[in-house]
Amino acid sequence: MKIYLASSWKNQKAVLTLAERLESERFEVDAFCRATDKRYSFHWSELVDDEAELLTYDAIDFLKDHRVQRAFREDKSWLDWADTVIMIMPCGRSSHMEAGYVKGQGKLLYIYGEFPKDSFKARTNSSNCASRNNPSAIPYITSNSPFGNSP
User: Fold this and answer.
1) Which of 8, 48, 69, 83 has its CA 20 to 30 A from that of 150?
2) Is residue 118 part of a domain?
3) How many CB atoms neighbour CB 11 within 10 A?
4) What is this structure's pTM?
């Protein structure tokens, strides 16, 4: 199974921990926050020194930046590569857009993590499984995949 981990940079530690766990079970994993020789990773700090400065960016100008465009192409290629997406909550709009894209492609979507009381959306029901930070969720995800429990 090829797994794409979607989340927020604020969850970087959780994303990397989950990636290592899945890889130890011999799954192929893409973690957006892990730059490798195979993966370009973009962070807002490449554009500004302070996150608050992002509020001064015009959305159209932001999207025109070559690094942002490269990051979009990179993420989309990994979404197309994956059989399954695990969206680690809480996360932002980009991860939710990625989740909608993969569901539209007929791929598996699992939502995992903390669910703040104000974050529930009816479309969460379109996931194959939603779980709080429950250690038993990962074996469930990997054993209930139509792609089997092998890489």
Assistant:
1) 8
2) yes
3) 21
4) 0.78
